[in-house]
Amino acid sequence: MVKKGHFPVPVVVEVMFDDNTSQTITKTAEVWRNGEKSLVLSIEGTKKINKITLGSPKIPDVDNSDNTIILTK
Questions:
Q1: Sign of the four-CA dihedral 65, 41, 25, 32
Q2: Which of 5, 36, 51, 71 fits as disulfide partner to 16, beta carbons 3.0 to 4.6 Å?
Q3: Measured CA distances, 69 to 6, 15, 36 (Å)
Q4: End-to-end Cα spacing for the chain
């Protein structure tokens, strides 16, 4: 994921798996503290990922149209 704005905000990512379970990964705004422009997250396990969604209604986002990736089977 890439930081697009000017203000550091927390990172919330929801990962949906093939078996209809999900995992939420949350990082504080500290990940951007040293001027970082990108963040790499690792998801452990062997479940197949169907969808990844970035963001939360509690976190401002000027353009949430690019916050979801749907992976094809």
A1: negative
A2: 51
A3: 23, 10, 22
A4: 22
Q: What is the DSSP string of 19-51?
A: TS-EEEEEE-GGGGTT---B------SSPPEEE
pLDDT at 71 over 80: yes
Amino acid at 8: P
CB atoms within 10 A of CB 43: 12
Give residue for tokens 């986002």.
Answer: 61
pLDDT tens sequence across 27-47 = 999 999 888 889 999 998 999
Residues 25 and 42 sit within 8 Å (Cβ to Cβ)? no
